[in-house]
Amino acid sequence: MKKGNYILDTINEIKKVLGKNDYRIKRYNKDLEWFEDRKNIFKDNIIRVAIMGITSSGKSTLVNALLGEKILPMAIRPSSSIIITACKGENRQATIYFKDKKSQILEGSNLNEEIIRQYADESKNPNNRLNVTQIDIKTPYFLLDENIHIIDSPGLDAWNLDNHEKLTLEILLPTIDICIFLTTVKATSDEANVEKIKIVDEKEKQIILVQNMIDSIEEKLGRNGIVEEDKSIILKKHKKRAENLLMQGTKKSESFEVIQISALNGLKGIINKDKELYESSNIQDFIRAIETCVNSITPRINEKRSGSLEERINQIITTDKEIINGNDVDTIEALKNVKVRDINGFAEEFQNAQEKILLKIKEIEAVISDTIFEIRNSSSEELQSYLDIVDRINNKNLYIESDILNIVKECEKRKNEIYEKLNLDTGFEYFLQGIESKNLDVKHKYEEKTILFKKEGVLNKGKRLFSNIFDREWGYTEVEYDEKVVDKEATIDIAQEVCNQNNIEYLNILKEWSTEYNKAINVFYEEVGKRAEEYEEKKKQNIELYDIEDANKNLKSFIDKLIKLKAYEENKLETTIDGEKYEAPESISYSIPKVQYNIYKLSTQIFEKNYLLLWNYIKERSIEKIKEETKEIFWIWDIDSCAEFVSRVLGIHLSQQQCEVIKQEGIYSFDKIVIVYDLCKNTLGFYSALKKIKDKSYNMFIVFNGIQIGNSKKLILESRSLNYFITNNNLMINLVIDSWKVFINSNNIKELLMEVHSLKNSIINKFNNSKDGYILINSKNPIYNMALIEGQEKDKFIISDYRDIKEILFGNPLSRGEEEKETLEEILSYFLNKEHDTI
């Protein structure tokens, strides 16, 4: 037998034994069918590779690169529940599967990004109203082998999809072989990623950690434009951080790998037939890593398959023995391995689980009812009191949702156990709708109030003295104004609406889950019935003792061979590629000619002067809005990004020592500037220092990762320290998008701005006292921020504004290149479309 095909060779030899003559063919016909089915499954040798990771980490771009063309929409807002698979096939086609109608096949000109977008993009198919369950794409240009199937899972940190993320991990992971954990080189959610990696590792799945978007890395500049760290050094640092994540999240991190790629450059290199660009993307290294990983897990897969064959052989031998001996007492039940009464018990447990979930839904109704009562009877006029009430209900909902997920998790565990006991394939198709519950917000209204201002002059000073004695308003001017206050009734109405929406959502989830689960229960009953039927058929046949004993003797020898071959494969199989062990390159090096560097240094000085003008303008606007002199405060989750932004807009270069202080203490002040690092280690000292700098007027810049927009929304809107600081403070809030360049490269800048605009509205609505600032980009070239400010300054951005501003910006020497002009047009055209105002 050949080592690599020993499973298929064993099946062929078993079939020869069972089909030796007409008697055996008739007696073992069901067994022969079973081995033929297994042969077809094992021959394809499908390896399921799931790409999991943060939203907007470039999953769709990476799959497109593997497909060799742009088929999947590369959107910021993916679908919440649709699984997409990709593999090699003879023909270029996509199959769309629905839960309520027949599948649809797309071919030729009908298979393109725009058509797939109608099904897979949340903006085109909101809440999956088309009921799509899965999309399978095949193409002869796929870069991996025929047996490797890529699964593009929904994002693991999509905004308001926390519970769907947990369902993805619990339900999808048992069906896959390898996990590509995709993040970005500048990802800031290390702690959350470690938790996800731990879950993957607990399921004993092989992990390849991939850092995408190396094309977005820029060298770190010091004073006078001197390069302190080039791209290769920065990439080494990011890779080291990723390796630390694997150390923390896995038990055997030495067997796992970190690969750094640019999926976008890989895709562009293929489309434009640019070999140099493709090679710089490291996609080929990524492919080699998958191949190495497939080789390393092959013994484990073959061990499971071998065990499946052994179990079937033992079942055949035991059945023959019991029939010959005439032992019918409980024989059928014993042969089934899983008894009918066990499945009955399992079905009963599932029924109980459904009832528990219904009780949990009723708990949510009770929480809403209690909250409405509390809001209605509150006499407080303080906004914080109502925020505390709302926080309690939202947190309670999260706990209840967690309980529901634990019930689902336990049922899934029991179901997978029965699949294994029945010797059935666990890589079944499964659909479960994601939980996307709504949170409750405090609503506001405006009430007309008056305020007294002192009149100037000595006479009025005397009048004010008498006004205090006689309780009159002498010496003051009365001015009317509108004050934003809590709208109790509107908050109560929205609470009831949220409750109703969530209940409908949960009941739909329960219905979907019940349908899919009942399918699994029916499969179990069918399998048990089939085994009973096989036993009865064999029992009715004539006993030809010599033939049966000879068959059983040969079958027993196969068990011994399988055990020996498993041991041989585990000891001898080398995880090699082309005869040599593959090691990923440590870093990518870049070189810049001296003439080019001098031009670059000159342009850097021009950038600095223009940023200074831009900064002064923003500062003047903050003073106008806040009505007094302000300090600048930078609220951050990534210190390197902040250091870049501060360097660009202020010309202040933070040293490594200063960055370490910020990381440890969380708050760092100098001149009129404050930097707040929300992830600092010294929590106790952090809150104490935060209290001291509160209650002052600030021009605030929230610097966040644009690539991880879902995670960034969570960080900003759910940060307790940020919520505490903004509430009742006099601020102008500016949003600074870091890691923006990937959106320019993929022509997605409009969608990014739309998402950030939505985030900005959420912040302004949540913190009624804060002033509306600007959306900015942490870019080396200030021309983009000039365009953004121009667009935001106009109440109604019309076509004449677009033309005038475009002409001015295009005339600026900072926009001399094609990329600059294209990006400026994208930014300005965004402001022509006012639909984003309603998002």
Structural summary, described in words:
- The chain is an alpha/beta fold.
- Among the domains are: 237 residues, Rossmann fold (3-Layer(aba) Sandwich); 43 residues, no CATH class; 245 residues, no CATH class.
- The chain contains 28 helices and 19 strands.
- The chain has a nine-stranded mixed sheet, sandwiched between helices. The protein has a six-stranded mixed sheet with strand order 15-16-14-17-18-19, sandwiched between helices.
- The longest helix has 53 residues.
What distinguishing features does this structure have?
839 residues, alpha/beta, Rossmann fold, nine-stranded mixed β-sheet, 56% helix, 14% strand, globular, disordered C terminus, P-loop_NTPase, Dynamin N-terminal domain-containing protein, GTP-binding, hydrolase, nucleotide-binding
Topology:
Layout (H helix, E strand, L loop, with lengths): L5 H13 L3 H6 L1 H16 L2 E7 L5 H9 L15 E6 L4 E6 L5 E4 L5 H8 L11 E8 L8 E5 L9 H11 L5 E7 L5 H13 L3 E7 L7 E2 L5 E3 L1 H19 L7 E4 L2 H9 L3 H6 L2 H43 L5 H6 L3 H38 L5 H39 L22 E11 L3 H13 L5 E11 L1 H53 L4 H28 L21 H33 L4 E6 L2 H12 L5 H10 L1 E4 L2 E5 L5 H11 L3 E9 L3 H10 L1 H7 L3 E9 L2 H5 L3 H18 L4 E7 L5 H11 L5 H12 L7 H15 L7
Parallel strand pairs: 1-6, 1-7, 2-5, 7-8, 8-11, 14-16, 14-17, 17-18, 18-19
Antiparallel strand pairs: 2-6, 3-4, 3-5, 9-10, 12-13, 15-16
Helix pairs in contact: 1-3, 1-17, 4-9, 6-14, 7-8, 11-17, 13-14, 13-16, 22-25, 25-28, 26-27, 26-28, 27-28
Q: Overall 3D geometry? A: globular
Q: What's the end-to-end separation, in Å?
A: 64 Å
**Structural class based on helices, strands and sheet pairing:** alpha/beta
Unreliable segments (pLDDT under 50, ≥5 consecutive)? Answer: 157-161, 428-438, 458-475, 573-592, 595-600, 835-839
β-strand number? 19
Helical segment tally? Answer: 28
Report the major sheet: 9 strands, mixed
Rounded average pLDDT: 77
Radius of gyration: 32 Å
Can you list the strand order of the major beta sheet? 4-3-5-2-6-1-7-8-11
Strand residues, percent: 5-15%
Specify the helix fraction band. Answer: 55-70%
